Amino acid sequence: MSTTHDELKALVKEKYSQIAEQDKAYNAASCCGATSCCGGDEVYNIMADDYTQLDGYHADADLGLGCGIPTAFARLQPGYTVVDLGSGAGNDAFVARRHVGAEGKVIGVDFSEAMVAKARQNADKLGYNNVEFRLGDIEQLPLSAGRADVVLSNCVLNLVPNKPAVFAEIFRVLKPGGHFSISDIVLEGELPGRWKEVAELYAGCVSGAIQKSDYLQAITQAGFSQLTLQKEKAIVIPDELLQNYLSEAEIAQYKASNTRILSITVYAEKPATACQPGSGCC
After folding, report:
1. Which of 21, 148, 157, 183 has the fewest CB atoms in 10 Å of its CB?
2. Under DSSP, is residue 135 helix (H, G, I), strand (E, B) or coil?
3. Which of 270, 282, 280 is nearest to 147 (CA)?
4. Domains in the chain: ranges and CATH
């Protein structure tokens, strides 16, 4: 039986609310952002990039759940208003704040009450009065149109069933001439069918990913221009993790296929004279 849009969203919300109450070391055993898997002694760098040397990094906000560093590519400037989609405990938001300065503004949006509470607690501890965290669905952002200079997101859109709706919302909240930089997981080729039936693999950023070509097409169909692939990295999932979900024969078949799981960071701009596609204004 296929899982519905609302059931998938409820699954993700439950999983990430649990993660909000755990520390980074525990979360490192999950798929998304994993640095170690299945209790083995060997350390794997599956998805997450290292934030620890970045200006603005705060360990309490890093739950090890990303698959890139979009702030490194986002062309942030002092005074910008930045929106972080799926802001979690605040990791990317706090790094973005370091770039936009005291005169800038960072707004994080997450639909897990536990994550928003954790992020707000972190912001309070740090004394930041220009970083705000809002509870909301990124398919229907709690933001007015033309609010943001830049939109960021890190390993989140793959968790959303209706990705075109998210790109339409990003387009809406960006100022004309604004841009986004998003790190995410995409596919080339097909995953084994059983992966799509495993809740942990959906919440772990793998089975919710779509084809890279479809992902990039959704961006252009939303009205964006200057689409640029800023970074691409192949994700190699270790056998110790695959064995939790696949038989030895299925693992061999998967490895022999041309399927690739990719972490990408992609950039695009809202045209300075933009109007929403389909609105009749252009």
Report:
1. 21
2. strand
3. 270
4. 5-269 (3.40.50.150)
CA–CA gap between residue 23 and residue 181 (Å, rounded): 27
What band does 59 get if pLDDT is binned at 50, 70 and 90?
confident
How would residue 159 be classed by pLDDT, with cut points 50, 70 and 90?
Answer: confident
Total Cβ atoms within 10 A of residue 74: 25
- Torsion-angle region of residue 90: left (phi > 0), alpha (psi -120 to 50) or beta? left
Which amino acid would we find at residue 126? L
Tell me the C-alpha distance between 275 and 282, whole Å. 7
Please provide the average confidence, as pLDDT, over all residues in the chain.
82
Strands (E), 89-147: 105-110, 131-135
What is the spatial distance between Cα 93 and Cα 95, in angstroms, rounded to a whole number?
Answer: 5
Residue (of 198, 172, 186, 185) closest to 250 by Cα position: 198
For residue 121, the model assigns a pLDDT of: 96
Tokens describing residue 266: 């992609």
| Highest mean pLDDT pick, 6-15, 59-68, 193-202 | 59-68
Which residue type occupies 281?
C
pLDDT in the model for residue 40: 33
Tell me the per-residue pLDDT of 114-140, one tens digit each, with 9 for 90 and over.
999 999 999 999 999 999 999 999 999
Cβ(248)–Cβ(193) below 8 Å: no
Is 149 within 8 Å of 178 (Cβ atoms)? yes
| Of 5 and 37, more confident | 5
Structure tokens that stand for 116 in this block: 């928003």
Q: Which residues, 6+ apart, have CB-to-CB distance to 112 below 8 Å?
A: 13, 16, 17, 20
- For the full predicted model, state whether its pTM sits above 0.70: yes
